[in-house]
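Q: I have two molecules that I believe assemble together. Could you output structure tokens for the complex as a whole instead of separate predictions?
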Amino acid sequence: MSSTDVLLRAGRLAAEGVPFALVTVVDVVRPASTRRGDRGLVTADGALVGWVGGACSEPIVVREALRALAEGEARLVRIGPPGRLTEGAAADAVVAESSCASEGVVDVLVEPQLPEPLLAVVGASPAAETLARIAPEVGWRVVREVSPKADAVVVATMGHGDEEALAAALEAGAGYVGLVASARRARAVLAALRESGLDEEELARVRSPAGLDLGPSTQPEIAVAVLAELVAWRHTRAPVPATPAVARDPVCGMEVAVAGAKETAEHEGQTYVFCGPGCRSRFEAEPARYLAVETP
Amino acid sequence: MKDILPTLERWTADGLRAATATVVAIERSAPRDPGAVLAVSEQGDVAGSVTGGCVEPAVYEEARDVLAGGSPRLKSYGIADEEAFEVGLSCGGTVHIFVSMLDPALVEPFAAALAEDRAVALTYDVSGPDAGAARVVLGDAEPEDDVERRAQELLALGETALVEVGGEDVFVSSFAPRPAMYVFGAVDHAAALAQVGRHLGYRVTVCDARARFATPERFPNVDELVVDWPDRFLAQAPIDERTAICVLTHDHKFDVPLLKVALRSPAGYIGAMGSRRTTEERAERLRAESVTDDELGRIRAPIGLRIGARAPEEVAVAIGAEIVQAARERAKAAVEPVAR
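A: Yes, here they are, computed for all two components at once.
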């Protein structure tokens, strides 16, 4: 798959809302099997397409791509033989020793591409209408009713079902739940929710009034205040804790992502993963030798 | 008022008397902003709305009563108590609505001012001996008394509000032409900011000295695209207290002369993009050109509220929010809200 094909595929995945990481070779110290500008793409199942180096780099690339996807941040990764790898590397680069004999050093940029967060805007008030119009320009997908997949829910119905929409949003577990209403109206809505059996912990999740406090505002201004708060929330919320599962190659000791691992072997009912076919065949030849060694 | 003006002109031409119900104050979530009008003709015809259906039936009855000779009146509808719920404002919020007779002599001058795109305010005496009296006040006319002076102050800020003048309540409904937003630097952020600015009701101009970057393809959603030296353009551009000036040029060569022009203007918002270090360097250069610390204090830099914005579109929202905040601060200083 050529570098351009990888970009085309990336475009298709982005359009479908599928998360993936784009991997680009940004620097090479020869001898190496890749060139600057080579590209690959890793999906959440650990599958890699494109060319970013041979069997030595691939497991490292997949592992780092899955980590970048979990973290939501781009990372620079230096791959090479043990030794003076950190020399000249960017301070925040991830340095990974490959277990192969190759002498080359490859720097790859790993960019996670996550689908845009989903915002549910409930209600037909002018503030809601304006918010629903602007949010897509700022990188949100917008739906007009509470969805179980919504990352954020903003309720601005002007009294036409605030309670129901908020209850549904809390139930669905949306990370941001905001109510656009006067302080008095908000108190009445929360009281009704309390009466319907929601506890204080759940009610405390409702941001009311939704949006940064910019002073008394017109309806379009409220929409901008809410959007500003959503941007802040999006960038400050804790990164998804789910770190990808990695297992240690019992032969060379490298950490290999379990998802999509190509080289695996069964031994006494246990599955082992390997960085490449070399390690796998060595293991299969005399498993006891590698399992006897306690890996830290 | 603008939305129902054609109807009012027709009624007036037909010699029909009419009463108007005007939202003069609201709580945060009321469906329509102050200035919204519902008019009722003596034949019982209705134009416009004050809450989008919540309290219209009750307001209609008040208007009919005023048409039948009743006094002008201020009515409040809210959710303060159970009774109010029954009146029908399930929609939330509290609205204060002033009901009075329409002065037919005001319709024509008001319509003419709007047609000429002039700043114009309608004022209503809400309390006092002249309660119900209304006037058309032009932004550039010589004020004849305190009410007109106050109306012009609010009009300059584009504010519609209930204020106190000489111990009486006066409602001022402002009809100002759209305020201007000048964005300098034809970068991605500028396109995004233009979009947010238009949503907020600004007339947006993007200016850059480089014709190659300031193209309609890159800026399809601006009111005006100008290729000129930023400082030269701004020096002759109309600027008032509602004007927002956003400096995204990010280059001292452009920023410094541009900001000097901006600081000499009455613009209500001046923001400049750049890291903290760029900002400090720029401040140094401006001081070297004898700009005072007080003047430097007017520049919001780095531009935009700190909301962790990353993408240009997010930065645009951060700037939009800061512009709203600045406008509210100015308005707060100018408007003492009447407590109810």
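A: One point stands out. Chain A touches chain B through 42 residues (CB under 8 Å).
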